[in-house]
Design brief:
With 387 residues, this protein is mainly alpha-helical. It has three domains: 181 residues, no CATH class; 73 residues, no CATH class; 49 residues, no CATH class. The protein is 53% helix and 5% strand. This is DUF222 domain-containing protein.
Length: 387
């Protein structure tokens, strides 16, 4: 049963499902075809045509996503947003980029019911024909977004047309150079760019953590923010300063530290400039947090740093030890700890009573074995507060 109650077996009023089924059949036959029979010239033409068809399919896919959005289908199906629908239901690999692509080349229905023209019509036409791809669309839109808002409208239209035509013949990397030339021609002295343009383009994105828990930070900073950041890095990111790997490294600014201590720490400092910048930002945020500049509460709760750890984390980081003497008898202290479950906080045991509890007989099968806490590890501070 479909969303509107129509059975999947009923005849559709649209020819689109039948056309897509036919296209799928063509792709099946194409996959079974032997390309080795093609000459070199024919194979080049085949590959070029294939890429053009991929671009055309992307454009048509954008048109269908816009139609779904106009009808409110994602919300009706229970998705939080169009982006969430694209990611989960349609399995779009990068919904954010796809949304930017649609904003540049798709036709949206207005509140009046009329369908608007694409934001960049010449670029959209090239995309629909397959002459330009998604990377070309992103690059052209990125360049056009840098055009000052005070530039006359007719020159903006001419710039869009020029870049769209260049995109048909050049790679996205080449468009970067060509776009910079175009921007320099439109505003050679930078007089048209004002605070409104800079405010429109300012942004800072904290991207998701990767598998190693690292996060990429991307930003477009206005001149004032850049100047403040440069001043902070010039003081806090100097060699030897705010080095987390050196316990004798001075913290804070260089002016507040001992000169000889800074020199000694700088001689031991093997970090790159990028790593020093990172550590300086970390030290600054830590100082701001400690000084209470973030406020005393967040939505009524005390501002605090929360470190989450489940039972599996503790088992993995603490380790399991089978502490017995040479004849196989358990060590007395370990035996008492194993019987009392003292290696795990009571609150944690209660939270995980339905999961594996850290008892000696459950971890290793021996009554005397217990969880051993030995050596420094990243949960040491947390465990020391609990144990």
């Amino acid at each position: 049963m479909s969303l509107n109650g129509q059975s999947s077996g009923e005849q559709s009023l649209s020819v689109v499902p039948a056309l897509l089924a036919e296209l799928g059949g063509v792709l099946d036959r194409l996959a079974a075809a032997d390309v080795s029979q093609c000459t070199d010239a024919e194979l080049v033409d085949v590959a070029r045509t294939h890429e053009q068809l991929i671009n055309r399919m992307l454009f048509e896919g954008d048109r269908q996503i816009v139609a779904l959005s106009d009808r409110g289908v994602p919300r009706a199906m229970g998705y939080r947003s169009l982006t969430n629908f694209m990611n989960v239901a349609l399995r779009v690999s990068d919904p954010g980029r796809r949304t930017d692509q649609m904003e540049a080349t798709a036709c949206f229905r207005q509140l009046s019911g009329e369908v608007s023209d694409p934001k960049y019509p010449t670029l959209a036409a090239g995309f629909a024909e397959g002459a330009v791809g998604a990377a070309h669309v992103r690059k052209v839109a990125e360049i056009l977004d840098k055009i000052p808002h005070r530039l006359p409208h007719d020159r903006k239209v001419a710039a869009e047309k020029t870049l769209a035509e260049l995109a048909r013949e050049h790679t996205p990397a080449e468009l970067t150079t060509l776009g910079m030339r175009l921007l320099a021609h439109l505003d050679p002295d930078g007089e048209l760019t004002d605070a409104k343009d800079r405010a429109r383009r300012r942004n800072l994105w904290l991207n998701r953590q990767d598998a190693q828990k690292m996060s990429k930070l991307t930003a477009n900073l206005d001149p004032q923010t850049r100047a403040l950041l440069e001043m902070m890095l010039a003081v806090w990111a100097k060699p030897g300063m705010n080095n987390p790997d050196d316990p004798d490294s001075p913290s804070g600014g260089e002016d507040d530290a001992d000169i000889e201590q800074v020199k000694a720490a700088a001689a031991r400092d093997s970090r790159s400039q990028a790593q020093r910048n990172h550590d300086a930002l970390n030290a600054l945020l830590t100082a701001v947090f400690a000084d209470g500049l973030l406020g005393k509460t967040h939505r009524g709760l005390p501002v605090s740093l929360i470190i989450k750890a489940n039972l599996a984390d503790l088992i993995r980081e603490v380790g399991v030890g089978d502490h017995r003497d040479r004849v196989g008898h358990p060590h007395p202290r370990v035996d008492r700890a194993g019987r009392a479950d003292s290696a795990v906080p009571g609150d944690l045991r209660r939270c995980h009573r339905d999961s594996a509890v850290l008892r000696s007989r459950q971890t290793t099968g021996h009554p005397g074995a217990a969880v051993g806490v030995a050596g420094p590890h990243r949960w040491g501070g947390v465990l020391s507060a609990w144990l």
